Amino acid sequence: MASPLRNSPEPEDQRNVIIATILVAVIMFAWMFWFSPSPQQQQAEAPADTAQQTEPPAPTADTDTTDPSADPSPAATADASEDADTGDADAPPPNANQPEAPAPDSVTAAALEGTERTIVVESDLYTVVLSNKGGTIERFTLKEYEQFNQEDPVQIVDTTAGGTLSLSFTTPTRRRVDTRTLYFSANTEADTVRIEDESKTLTFEAQLGDGALRQSYTFHPDDYDLGLAIEQERPRSFLSSDGYELTWHGGMPYSEGGEEDELRYTGLFARNGDQIRSLTLSDADQNEKRIEGDVSWMAVKNKYFTAAVMPDRPESAQGASLTGRKEGRATSEAAFKALTGRLQMPLPRETTHVDNFHLYAGPIDYYNLADYGRNLYGMVDYGWDWFEWLTKPLAEYLYIPMLTYLGGGLPSWLFGGSLPYGIVVILMAVLIKTVVYPLTKSSYRSMAQMRELQPKMQEIKDKYDDEPEKQQEEMMQLYRETGVNPLGGCLPMFLQYPILISLYQFIPKSIQLRQESFLWAADLSAPDKILQLPFEIPFYGDYVAGFTLLMGLAMIVTMRVQSTGGGAAGGQAKMLMYAMPGVIFFIFNRFASALSLYYLFYNIVTAAQQKWINMQLEKEKDDDGSLTNGRSDGAADGEKGFFARLMERAEEAQKEQR
Hints:
Blueprint: H1 11-35, E1 118-122, E2 126-131, E3 136-146, E4 153-155, E5 165-170, E6 176-178, E7 185-186, E8 192-194, E9 200-208, E10 211-219, E11 225-233, E12 244-249, H2 259-265, E13 267-272, E14 275-279, E15 286-292, E16 297-301, E17 305-311, E18 319-329, E19 332-345, E20 352-363, H3 366-370, H4 388-408, H5 421-435, H6 437-452, H7 454-463, H8 468-482, H9 491-494, H10 497-506, E21 529-537, E22 541-545, H11 546-562, H12 571-588, H13 593-620, H14 642-657
Parallel strand pairs: 1-8
Antiparallel strand pairs: 1-2, 2-3, 3-4, 5-6, 5-12, 7-9, 9-10, 10-11, 11-20, 12-19, 13-14, 13-16, 15-18, 16-17, 17-20, 18-19, 21-22
Helix pairs in contact: 1-6, 1-12, 4-5, 4-10, 5-13, 6-13, 7-8, 8-14, 11-12, 11-13
């Protein structure tokens, strides 16, 4: 079976890439020091209709229990465009996952009978299907985003859950109620509501005991934000002292074609105080987390999309619970996640009380989420925790603004208001390489100076071969006299690697690059396959990615530029010149094409800068052709370099200790 395309690395790949990057960097520096004389995913046909995925129906809620964990949600499925009328025998029956209705009593009897009907809400951004049974959302389709097949629109709610949002509570008669079993009346007789120039509110009302429960959804034009109001009239007639749970049922349906990859990115998240809590199932078949205290928001997400519920008053929430489990699928070896998030709300004291919420349902766009001022974008994984101090600010203040404004926020008179995202990625490479140019130049200057010291260093090694301490002392004296820093070639280059690693983390998750084409790449967030192989190579794939191939060739050119100007490039150097690009080419073949495009032009700019640095250093040489004239950083005549001064201070401190 052909391997699915991946647009981001697996965890084991991440470790391999970091190890390989460090090893490649060390080898590169050693190679340039000793040998260079001159200073300087095939997308697998995953089913488009996730509703066709067979699954065991989730257990129905026990009407006589008060345990909230007894209502597990079904797994992520189906695209909105794939209705039940497809006639797929494998699809679950429409009501397979509906909770069991409570036995009629004085509280629920009036709401247990009715005729189900749906109301469609249309805006320019989405289509929402709501049902009067449960007063809940059954489908939420994003019009501006398509699934991996670039035909079917993205569906962000579980269409087999029997309703995505519900209230769960225990009545004074000790009946457990899930509002998805109740019939509500709607404030409109229309089957379709169009959101155009002004906001509109759709209200569902159910009579419970001597009171009423109203759920109102407010839809805004050109906005993924929805208002949700839970109004309780005489709540003590139908709620116990435990209050109620606002529950999100189901995970995000798969939309990217790589199920293993999506499984890793799908999860439940909640913000409790300043801490973001998450529930993922990467290492366990099932998991549960309980949160005490205020909850700023609760969200379910996959790689590119999210749905988040936010109480207007976070302090009004009494906690939350996040539960999930893995379940097998008939169509793949991958598991999928059945997720349920519950937000605990208290019993109101007033006769009439309204709990207001915001519901965001759309792409994980930094500026959309930042508008709420609740650190919603914090649910995005920036990579390793110990590295987040760098990757997060780089993403928020450099990568995201460049992709957002250059890709679509320019004035209309300038390039038609936007640049192709491939050009933006190239500009990012040029900009970053320009910013770190001083580090690059410093590194090559130091390496050139160290190469000039090689004959003298070899003499010291030969002279004091049996006296390691004397040999080290003479080496330090040589560095002090010449002002050369032996670490000056490595340190500036290593300082650039965090930037590269942060891009490696950010680019595969960028919603701006999703399904954006450039040249032959149909999707910058996926591999750009240019050649299909008749066989599969382990860890490589069964195709050749174009930008990755060019990136490997650019690395060879860069290393040849480094080694021009002399005959020191022996067999080891030549082997390294081709081995290193080969390793990188092998690793990057299944990554996002935007990542390979970035590294391609990063290497092109690097080669150009090295050529320029070589020319500049040639001009700076003394009459005897030497850079080691007692100044390591261009200091004035007679002024010692930083490393020379540092060595003198160390020597003085050592003498004082004696």
